[in-house]
Design brief:
By secondary structure, the protein is α/β, with parallel strands linked by helices. The chain has eleven helices and twelve strands. The chain has a six-stranded parallel beta sheet, with helices on both faces. Strands 7-6-8-9-10-12 form a six-stranded mixed beta sheet, with helices on both faces.
């Protein structure tokens, strides 16, 4: 961890930062944002979307850090992860509302660069989580996320094991241009080449929409009725693919390995519809994201390396009841 070395120094820095703002007027943020006073530290936590329960783990971690350090968390994001324009507008709304720092999961690696630069020019530090910015241009304080390429490789190994290291597989991605999607698919495709008996026959995208994931799974199996396995790169894909197999009587005939761990995915794992889940640690992303923003406000240097791996775990029926795994499956529950 990169925080906790000097809590009193941090409080002093934050107090001086608040004191430097003229007046004591309150202002309401655009779009119904929180009213803030000159001496109140508000950190905006902006996920890629709010429809996916994965982001509730980020929210729980961020709020835990906020309680620990006595700062207010403004958790707000676009409803849909495809709403890049909506997220850009939201970042700029929070800047104008006077937040002191931003924790951001970027919907697009390039499109969010300008609003992040706008924040930095206004003296508002930005920490990226989950899905970052183009690493060649990323100006954020640090990036906290799953090593998504490694997660994709673990998914390939898990799916290979589930189908006996031979057969045809399809990939259900969610959004081209999102760093997390692209890295997961890159890792999967690289690792699956180690299994000469397996062929990737198709890659489709569901826009992080469960209904579209059902339809794309149907399209996948219509075109390839002899498909043996599916890699679903996020929660809506995993839930949608499992729903289609259930509806079509294909449970057990087609194996699924999916990212994330929603309640639906956990139940599908218990029932054997999904064979393995690639589980991230969104609670840790939210918690440490807030802590690193506070480090930036206290003028501490960026952590080195700037990428902080929040971890990834393969969960199966065999290990899902282990206490440490349960903490990952139910972040913030205790």
């Amino acid at each position: 961890m990169h925080f906790g070395k000097s809590y009193s120094t941090l409080l002093l820095a934050l107090g001086l930062l608040g004191a430097g703002v003229s007046g004591c007027q309150k202002s309401a943020g655009p779009g119904g944002g929180p009213a803030t006073s000159a001496n109140q530290v508000v950190i905006a936590v902006i996920p890629k979307g709010t429809a996916n329960s994965y982001w509730l783990g980020v929210k729980a971690g961020a709020e835990a850090a906020g309680r620990e350090r006595g700062v207010k968390i403004d958790f707000d994001g676009p409803k849909l992860e495809t709403d890049i324009t909506g997220q850009i507008n939201l970042v700029e709304d929070k800047i104008n509302a006077g937040v002191k720092g931003i924790v951001l999961a970027a919907c697009d690696t390039h499109a969010l660069l300008r609003p992040v630069e706008d924040a930095l020019h206004r003296g508002i530090p930005v920490v990226t989580i989950d899905s970052g910015l183009d690493p060649k241009e990323d100006p954020s304080y640090c990036y906290i996320a799953t090593n998504n390429e490694e997660g994709g490789k673990k998914a390939a190994d898990a799916l290979a094991a589930a189908i006996g290291e031979k057969g045809k597989v399809g990939i259900l991605g969610f959004l081209q241009g999102a760093a997390s999607n692209d890295d997961r698919l890159k890792g999967f495709n690289e690792e699956i080449k180690k299994y000469p008996g397996i062929t990737v026959v198709t890659t489709l995208y569901d826009d992080s929409d469960t209904g579209k994931a059902v339809n794309q799974t149907a399209n996948m199996l219509t075109a390839h009725p002899d498909l043996n396995g599916i890699f679903a790169a996020n929660q809506p894909g995993g839930v949608g693919a499992a729903n289609y197999l259930r509806q079509s009587g294909l449970v057990g005939k087609v194996k699924i390995v999916a990212f994330d761990a929603s309640d639906d995915e956990i139940n599908d794992l218990k029932q054997g519809i999904i064979q393995a889940l690639i589980v991230q640690n969104p609670y840790q992303m939210g918690y440490q994201g807030v802590m690193e923003v506070l480090n930036a406000l206290a003028k501490k240097p960026s952590p080195q390396p700037r990428f902080i791996d929040s971890g990834v775990t393969v969960v199966t029926q065999q290990n899902m009841n282990d206490p440490q795994i349960q903490k990952l499956l139910h972040p913030g529950s205790s």
